[in-house]
Write a structure and sequence with these properties.
The protein is built from 15 helices and no strands. With 455 residues, it is mainly alpha-helical. Helix 2 packs antiparallel against helix 5, helix 3 packs antiparallel against helix 4 and helix 13 packs antiparallel against helix 15. The longest helix is centred in the middle third of the chain and has 36 residues.
Length: 455
């Protein structure tokens, strides 16, 4: 790492990976609940496990984003963070908030709003944490007097994510109105400004890992921002089928939501072409795999499966079924989980003093097992969802009768989820086997390529 204060990123990543592991436990438990019998029904019913599963995802991914931002901003602005202590206070508050929310869900303390279940006091803690974060980042850039487009888009994505959280703080008496504005937070997070965050981290990594030209990467970032504000905002309407908005929103939402990952894929293709042309190879091949894999899996999960599911004439049958889980798991994993894991894989050698070219076999096992497991989980959700839609919504079979007919697909889900779990455990073990240390700046800090085997 270039600057001493960048070490805070290690602890953000450590918290993120621990919460990732806990989220995985909840996911496997939910899959097992479908098969039954459920000995934990009275203590941990399905709806509570689901709330924990989805909220852990948000907390650990945002922890990864914040840790990555602290690393990137210091690197791009070429200065120490304004306050390393403030960053640790922020992390402690964020972790305590997440732990309190999990315990609260188990005790029935919830706002009762799907995917925004945090009780109001915890939502205020989230706002306070984000304000601390933005103050620290702003003062860092102000101190340096220098910022790049990459970090600008990254920070803009996080600022807009905070602003779009404001509808979740407001009370609504009408459930339809609440559902309408709920998507302003949820959709415009995951299919809007979070893509700006992914795009900026992708650009940061591609410049350093592939030798791609910074100016070209930054031009792609302009395209990403444009697509986010065009496709992301208009794509929100694909959630409105059941909300009661005018019918013209439905084809608009279905079409534009499928365009969101296009710029990211184009940027990854350019980076791959740059690597092929230069003939250079960064010694951290594991980080290269996670980086390119994020863009490719985003095309598959968010693009292809999103288009297959969100078009209104299809969505009226698939909405709220296991087809939704098919799209959601692949899209979230490719776009956000993988980019956080890519950032961790790139920065870990510099945060721990480990040679990036040495000891990568465990990391590659983690990579391929996760890819295979998530692809298998996606297919399991898809086949179960297709059967569910036909039996339940076309033939009119009851919900529980339908679930009995598709049990084989849940057995496949548990099996492939177990494969994915092994990959996640290996990644976590690989991360924690090296302790953080104080080392000098990497040779590729300006985007140049290190020779293979270099420290």
């Amino acid at each position: 790492m270039r600057f001493r204060s960048q070490r805070v990123a290690y602890w953000y990543f450590a918290v993120a990976l621990c919460l990732f592991g806990l989220q995985l436990v909840m996911g496997l438990l939910m899959a097992a609940k479908y098969l039954g019998p459920d000995p934990l029904l009275g203590f941990l019913p399905f709806d509570v496990a689901k709330a924990m599963h989805t909220n852990l995802l948000i907390v650990w991914v945002l922890a990864g984003f914040m840790g990555g931002t602290y690393y990137v901003v210091a690197e791009e602005s070429r200065t120490e963070l304004y306050s390393e202590r403030l960053a640790y206070i922020q992390l402690a508050a964020w972790t305590l908030m997440g732990a309190t929310a999990i315990v609260g869900y188990m005790l029935g303390w919830t706002a009762g709003i799907k995917m925004l279940e945090q009780p109001y006091p915890l939502k205020l803690v989230i706002v306070a944490v984000m304000l601390l974060f933005f103050f620290n980042i702003f003062m860092t850039i102000r101190k340096a007097g220098r910022w790049t487009l990459t970090e600008g888009v990254l920070i803009a994505g996080l600022v807009l994510a905070a602003l779009l959280y404001l509808p979740a703080l407001l009370p609504y008496e009408n459930y339809t109105v609440e559902t309408f504005y709920r998507w302003w937070t949820i959709h415009l997070w995951v299919e809007g400004v979070w893509e700006m965050i992914q795009g900026s981290m992708l650009a940061f990594l591609l410049v350093r890992l592939s030798g791609a030209d910074r100016e070209v990467m930054e031009k792609w970032l302009y395209v990403i921002v444009g697509l986010v504000f065009m496709a992301g905002i208009l794509g929100t309407a694909h959630h409105y089928y059941w909300t009661g908005v005018p019918g013209y929103w439905l084809p608009i939402g279905g079409f534009f939501s499928a365009l969101e990952p296009v710029a990211l894929v184009g940027m990854a293709i350019y980076a791959y072409a740059a690597m092929r042309r230069s003939g250079a190879a960064h010694p951290n091949t594991l980080a290269v795999h996670w980086t390119i894999g994020s863009a490719v899996f985003t095309l598959f999960g968010a693009g292809l499966l999103g288009l297959a599911h969100t078009w209104p004439s299809i969505n009226k049958w698939t909405h709220g079924t296991l087809i939704t889980a098919m799209h959601g798991h692949a899209a979230f994993y490719g776009a956000y989980a993988m980019i956080v894991l890519a950032m961790i894989s790139y920065t870990r050698p510099y945060l721990t003093g480990n040679d990036p070219a040495r000891g990568q076999s465990l990391g590659f096992w983690a990579f391929w097992l996760q890819i295979a497991g998530m692809f298998g989980m996606t297919l399991s959700f898809a086949t179960a969802g297709i059967g569910q839609v036909y039996l339940e919504r076309v033939m009119g079979l009851g919900y529980l009768d339908t679930q009995l007919k598709i049990q084989i697909h849940f057995m496949m889900l548990v099996a492939t989820g177990g494969l994915f779990a092994v990959g996640v455990v290996l990644y976590i073990v690989d991360f924690f086997r090296f302790a953080p240390s104080h080392i000098t700046a990497p040779n590729d800090a300006d985007g140049s390529i290190q020779p293979r085997g270099a420290a």
